[in-house]
């Protein structure tokens, strides 16, 4: 079902059972897999590939217990040229995927997130709201990128890294702040980042480490709790 | 495809390509996203929202190597009023979601699980069979809630927490017992809970901790292995 | 939509909205859920069950930043007899699932992977490319099995275990080598395995441990970093 208001470019390939809602704009040379759902207002550039069974442009929802209520006027999802998105993924409204971004299968990115040029958001990675991801960043499979996080350019985040942003763990409406990962830092697989820690430029966090305080630039930190390795 | 035996209330909105199998009951003011599959016997209350590409009421399956064989007569999936379920999720038969529950995207809940009023089961969280989740519980994104676990009211479980229930790791048909998390306890992100540990009332488990034995009420435990922080 | 070139056996059950692309071969007594997508060239044996909203035979994709480019001539996905696959899963081309394999929901297996007879790849587990999984292996829910890994027969991998294969974390085109897990070894939940470690026959890795070097056969290792428990 393609809504009559959709604007579709040249050389667009549609799979079976695709749903395109109102006011969607799709560029040229785009491939859309079977059973893809493109929700209203989504804007897609040229040479974009969308895997099967993926939802693009989901609006926010919530229940009584959730601190953040859905915004009334979220911007559309904007997908720049040469972006590739996998299968069974869910990308919300008010996300910007810059040129050349790769998003894996079974991946989700919530609203108010920007992913910079040529960055990778791996399979089964989850990105929460209000987070900024730089250029040429690698977020590997299974990572959890919390809300209110800043990831600068050329950061490498290994598989299954976990982060958090609420040091009071739901006890009240305190300000949430996710980690800040500075340019070129590398995080080993299954590391745990506590709220508001800063990982310095080109610092290295060992696999399985638990980072409870800031890591200086160019240092390597390992262990639980993480300690600088001289 | 809506089976002729389905009972559908007033003001129900169906997306495209929805499949509703036999003996499904749907209340009033329900919104069902595109490509949703509602398997037979599922019961849905009023004011329920179901995201795209989600499966409701999946029966159990297994292979030769699996200890638990599918029950022959599982109850239907029951979804109470004001429940919200995300996209690309899979919820089994014989699950009860109480009023106001929120289930995220890419989430799965297996059979014989109850989720209490207003609780949250976050995106990409997986809940195994035979587990009881209380009221106003928060299970954040990416958590793994093992089988045979008890989570009391107002527990907070941070992102990517992992639990287990089989201390013999598949060596035989020993009794499985998951952790017990008492009322108001809080578990930090990426913590690891071993089989059968009890986390006491209002206890706090630090992010990245490995909990090998019981945690007393009101205490904070951190590290690997977890130790009480005085 | 079933492509005219598909070869379909006897007693095959199709759900609604199923898509079967060209040159697919399906055996006898196969059940295919609603909205399943079977991509071209996939070969499916007898008595296979495919859950809803699953993609079979996905070709590889990549962006500029990814070291591995998609092969031009990947073999088809081959699914042997008596295999069961869950819902919302994504299995690539050039995968071989041997007889009796069970694959859970929300699971993904990339190209150049073999899964041996009667093995289990649990829900929400992700298996990367070029990895060999033996017979009667259990990979529990939420595991991350990296590329270039060898898992021998009768290994047990608990929930949420994480592995990696790149000790230079994206710094260049060094050879990648995942862990080797020898026959009968058991890995506790949320353990972290560093690149190229070998876990010896019948060794045990404790839950939450971080394994930075080889584990001898028949030994138990716990902690961060992992140490032999005497």
Automatic annotation (TrEMBL), chains A, B, C:
Pfam families: Hexapep (PF00132). Keywords: Repeat, Transferase. This is N-acetyltransferase. The keyword Transmembrane helix does not apply. It comes from the Bacteria. InterPro entries: Hexapep, Hexapep_transf_CS, Trans_hexapeptide_repeat, Trimer_LpxA-like_sf. The lineage of its organism: Bacteria, Bacillati, Bacillota, Bacilli, Bacillales. PANTHER family: ACETYLTRANSFERASE, ACYL-[ACYL-CARRIER-PROTEIN]--UDP-N-ACETYLGLUCOSAMINE O-ACYLTRANSFERASE. Gene3D superfamilies: Hexapeptide repeat proteins. PROSITE patterns: HEXAPEP_TRANSFERASES.
